[in-house]
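WARN  no MSA supplied for this record, continuing single-sequence
INFO  ligand: iron/sulfur cluster
INFO  echoing inputs
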Amino acid sequence: MGAYILRRLISAIPVLLGITVIVFAIMEMIPGDPATAILGSYATPENVEKLNRELGLDKPAVQRYFIWLGNMLTGDFGQSYALNRPVLDEVLERFGATLILAGVAFVLCSGLGVLAGVVSAARQYGPADRAITFVVLLGISIPSFFLGMMMILLFAVKLRWLPVSGMYAIYGGGDLQDLLRHLVMPASALAVVATGVIARLSRGAMLEVLRQDFIRTARAKGVPERRVIQGHALRAAMVGIIPVLGIQAGFVLSGAVYIEMVFQWPGVGRMLVDAILKRDILLVQGGVVFVAACYVLFNIVVDVAQSLLDPRIKT
Amino acid sequence: MRLFAGLLARNRLALVGAVVLAAVAVLALLVPVLPVRAPNVTDTAARYLRPLSEGHLLGTDHLGRDLLSRLLWGTRLSLAVGFAAAVIAAVIGAALGIVAGYFGGRTDNLIMRGVDMLMAFPYILLALAIVAALGPGLLNALIAVAAVNVPFFARNIRGITVGIANREFVDAARLAGMGHWRIIWSEILPNVVPVIVIAMSTTIGWMILETAGLSFLGLGSQPPQADLGSMLGEARAALITAPHTSVVPGVMILIIVMSINLLGDGVRDALDPRLRSGALSRPMAATRVARDTVPEPQGDGILTLQALETQFHVGGRVYRAVNKVSLSVHPGECLGIIGESGSGKSVTALSVMGLVASPPGVITGGAARYRGDDLIGAPYETLRSLRGDRIAYIFQDPLATLHPLYRVGDQLAEAIRVHHPLGRAEAWARAVALLHSVRIPNPESRAKAYPHEMSGGMRQRVGIAMALANDPDVIIADEPTTALDVTVQAQILSLLDELRRARGLAIIFITHDFGVVAQLCDRVAVMYAGRIVEEGPTGVLLESPAHPYTRRLIDCVPELGAGRRRLAAIPGLPPAVDQLPPGCAFAPRCGRKQPACEAGEIGLEGSGARRVRCLYPEVEEP
Ligand code: SF4
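INFO  complex generated
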């Protein structure tokens, strides 16, 4: 198992490099030169040239890529000009907030999604299945940001159950309970779409498995139906469901950007949008690379989980 | 197109989706000529008017602009952008996929590596990066959304293309000297276009959501022009004071995306052959029973089937898989049921314990009595407590019938524990002992193996051990040796034979192999088209078969008791059991057929243990 994890980690290296190449290439598409963007259009040509030299922008692209990559490996993601602080510091701080939001949403959508899928499959064409199917359809059709806004109207403004936005109360907050109260709405709004997708695919995976011969064997042994569904069938269906969870984790992580905007959550997504609007390119670059790298590593965890579940996978 | 129309007629929800979507699309197309106000005329005196205000059906926004007009124009824009993004992504993705799939090798490798790289990004993050580079704006948002969806199309289309590129007609075109691009154009493209269209229809809703999302973030359409997303984004500041400005565009997005999804689901369902054949419906815990009368108890066998009838109801058709089958087996006895595949022998066996998948299976008549008690229609808990405990099954192909993710020891232990309150360790010890009793070497370590780690013969022994786990009274073995080679087969048969002599087990042995029957069974029943056509003691039946079908079956066995036995072909095919001819079902293939054979029902006649369903049997006095 240890060797397997190591092999997967090594095989992630080219992917990570590919990510940096893609991000670098995309940023090369920017029209005009960054120094002008930073200094504004009234800057003198001498100043622009000086800054270009300071930023190393007079060198050829390939050389600049390797300098950038080398710096990142030593933990230097550059300096955000708009915030005037190191990119990595800012990203780490913001990523923590996003991780809390996306992590809770991911737990919600995996748990609820698989549960709904299993119930739906076990009661196929029954009232529960129809109800779940309808709610799922609604869930995958509603934009998460619109749902978030409607939640604010209902639960924060009308019913006054929950705070409107933010991560902590401005006065007197800061403890775990405060955080949880602030988390309820954004985490659920973020989880809805993924829950729907996971529920659909889980239902399909369960129905497929329930037709298999080994389910008939379990029934022929006299295994109670409840255990046939929750044990034998679900276990086999998980082999198909886990990769879907991995993909959905990516959607939750990046979809957090909408929710962070709606709920003023101080996460990395909102940071990116602000940085894009302010054309703070180094911050965008660093943020995207960092989040994408985390996602690649998370996918290794998914693969390992899969190999633990399915003994047929060679480790 | 006909398919499409038929689909809509069948699937009401998809129809609703199509109608709503068409209505929205027509409105969006007609906005320029509709009598609505100009979308960008501001009127600060009339800010935030509520819906149903005079002159403003849906009210006004923060600049006093008419919301109805903005909604319609915004819908137009959102639909156009979503559709354009889908087309661009589909075209580029399909092009990459076709090139990768058709040329294969290094081209394929290079393209697919790139695609995989793009897929390593969390989806929206990549779109953000692209917008960051190109700058905010609707066109750039469109490009970003299209770009992040290219990998999805490239992957799907590549898969399809690889399949097509290896087919004969493509080889033929290549041999005929056609150039690559002409082959792609004339042979490949026509075959992948339907797939592209379907993939597009399922992703277009998603693209509309995504572009709306970027606009919502302020990265898409820029003021004063507005699509649905940026309308929502602008309205967010006044969410609490003027919620209608948010609700109006939000609900519109919901309506559009939901109708697209409904329609897309309908299309997908209609094209999925598994859904139509019922292969995706969940089999119930026990076969459905729908019978009018219950036959009176009869006979003294430990397990007795009385005029059992099992049918498959698929669509409007009824397949009579088991047609009034009566059988009986006594303790210590082995009864063989023989027939070609599709003769109903397996369904007969599965019906006993309600294991026929339902839907589509239904037991429509007869009884199956274990020690006199009817199992058909018995409460689930009664059935369950007998399954595997008193009446156990051995199935064909244990690679498919054993759970692939559980260790065989656990599967055995479970078979015991569902019927007896036993501790884990104790059940495990019993499982190991069972493996030992079916002569698996090193049972302690083999118990820890997964099914895929064992050989076919070993797996089959596990299947037998599982059937023996609770010392049952009856074992129903459904072709348990078919997949095995002759030596292993012989070992397993002698094992079963020994067990029934030692434990007084009753065995129903289902097979298509007379060699096996001769070796193991006391009595044999021959099935054809869901019915028993002949029954009798093994020796007599093999010596002098009375039914022409039995005779044919025996003639087809090359040498009894040696070599690999397979039923050689009998001319003709067994009849489809949904359209049985009147009279003898074997008549179309029978050499002794007379006009009377096809006139009416023929009974299973005979004296004592020997019975035959034939008007002109091979032997005079069976
Ligand atoms: S009843 Fe007639 S057709 Fe049928 S098997 Fe006998 S002889 Fe042949």
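Residues B 547-548, 584, 586-587, 590, 592-593, 597, 602, 614-616 surround iron/sulfur cluster (CB under 6 Å).
INFO  checksum written, moving to next record
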